[in-house]
Structures are given as structure tokens and as C-alpha cells.
Task: structure prediction
Amino acid sequence: MTAAIVGVGETQPSRRDPRTIAELAVDATRLALDDAGLTTDDVDGIVTESVTFGKRAPADDIARRLGMTRRGFSAEIGIAGSGTVGALMLAQQAVAAGLAEVVISYYAINLSIRRGDVYGIHAEEPAKAAFEMPMGYYGQPVYFALQAQRYAAEYGLAPEHLGAIAVSARRHAQLTPNALVRESMTIDDYLASPMVATPLRKDDCCLVNDCGVAFVVAGVDRARDLPRPPVLIAGVGFASKALTQAQYFSQSNILRTAAVESGSDAFRRAGLSPADVDLAEVYDCSTVSMLLQLEDLTLAPRGAGATMASEGSFDPGGALPLNTHGGLQWQSYSVGAGHVVEAVRQLRGERGAGQVPNAEVALVCGLGAPEHATALLTVDR
Result:
């Protein structure tokens, strides 16, 4: 293992944050550097997610705002969650190749202040605008509802099964001080949640909020001299279906994500297996999308993930604590970057009441339409 995460930072998730995306990214990056005991003078590499909102916080602008004095390596990777988790792979490779000594990665979003429809970005895709939107097949909840309907037809999926996933995540959020939603929640509360796109309810869908998230990567030897315990990047996989974003939800096997390949590669590179995982942070833009990835990663048997949720396997104290900060559903919509931060804090033993006992191996994954990234992080034994 050549690289480790040495610092993490996130702004307080909120709605109507007055800061721009660039300002949120800079503030989160400064928090991560402070956490690492480093300054901007130490940084010589930047890796960012490349598509969704990254163009509003490009690396050259963020470097200028941070006052960086050098920048030897810069790269972009992937879409949304796949890019924020996949950034670990490029940062690790840059350090191993001697292209950079300290690499920062950030993500910021201000969805709550976007004017009009938060799904308006999809209207920019000609195929969707011409064929899907006029028929009402539009917006993530509708896409994920189709996945849930197909999953139900293949394996069975009662409303209470999806509800168990949402309730489990809320139980973790209740133990997370900065989670946006922390109120108690029961299955009955879930069933009373309004339907958005059958069979998905409001409580199956992720939050809409503003936040900035960042992490810092350095070589293992340097990491061991810094204030925080290093979290080793044991293995990362990145994969994509041979599809465009426009094709993904209408012209592919909607019950299979690229987690099949990215997870297999990550486990192989780390020399680990699913049985070694102590906790998992799985991209949960909806309950059903999280369920599909969980099964594609073989953390749950095919068709049995929802049953495991109903049995409490993913709860605090369960066999596989899942999305231990509340995830994108209840902590904050920060795509995969927030999952990386939570995994690091768990492996450093910093989560207080939400701490998973004796956590040594964490799986983190991010979905980006046809793309997917999986990372395995470990303590420095």
C-alpha cells in the first residue's frame, strides 16, 4: 500500500447556504488540511470529480483560492459518486508514481438554491428531452422506481423491505451530530411518507442540500508522521457499462450496476474479501439503488439484501453496519465524498456513539450512472 488518507473535512450540511460551490469546496478543503496538520504549501496535486457540478469549482480556480504555491499533478475522474470515490485511485497512483506528494480531492454542491427543477440537468440530454420526458419518464425517482418494480418482479419486494433500509439509515443518522435529519423513524412513519413514484416514497429518496466535502491523500511514510492515524487505501476499482448517461436507465440491464466489476477489482487489489468488511458506506441516492449495489458487491446475496435490512443486519450493532452516518438519505447529499469522510472517521475511531467497534476494514462505493467506483480502506496495522 503506497498511499493513505491523512485528513478529511466537511462543511455543515444545510439548505440555502449562501456560499457558492467554489467557496464551499475551499472551506471543506481547508478543514481537511487542518485535520491533516498540513497547509496549502504542502499540496502539489488535485483530483476532482469531472462532470456534474465540478465545472463550477475547477482545479485551477480552487488552487488560486487556496493560495497554492505549486501544482504538479491535476486530474479529473468520473461522474458524481463514481468520481469522488474513484479520485482515491488517481491520488494513490499519483503518489506511487512520484507525480505528487500530497493530493487533495473535493466536492461541493448547492442543490437547494438551484432555480427550477433540480433534475433540469437531464433536460440537456437530447435523447431524454426528445423521447423520455414527453412520456413522463423523467427525474431520478422515476428511474429508480422502475428499478424497484423490476426488482420486485424478479425477487419480491414488499414496502416494508424498502422501509427497513430507510429506517436503518435513520438509526445511524440519530447517532451522527451533523446529520440533517435525526428524528426517530419507524416503519409506520415510512409507510405514511407520500408516494413519489410507485413504489418509492419520499423517504426512499436522498436529500437535497448544500455542502462541501474534501479529503487529503499522502504517501504512507509521510502519513505516519502526521497527527491523525493514517487510513490506508488498500484497493480501488473503477468500472463503467458501455453506455452513455442518456442510455443508462432505459437501454441496459437496470438491475445490474458496474459495481460488479469495480468491487471485484477493489477486493483483488486489496487482497481482501467481502467477509473482511466491518462496515460499508454504499451510495444511496435511493433505497433501491443502494440495494442493487450491495448485492452487486456480494455484500448481500442476490435478492436478499432487503430481507437483511428487515432483520436488522445494517443497523447500529448489526452484522454489517451500513451507511453509518445516515448516508445520502439522512446525513447529507454529498455524493460519494461524504461516504469517504465517514469511513475515515470510523477507522480512526472518532465517531463516538456512532462508532462501529473494532472497525478495521471499510468499503466505500459511489455510483455515477453507468460508472461505479469501489474503495477498500483499512487501518494502519
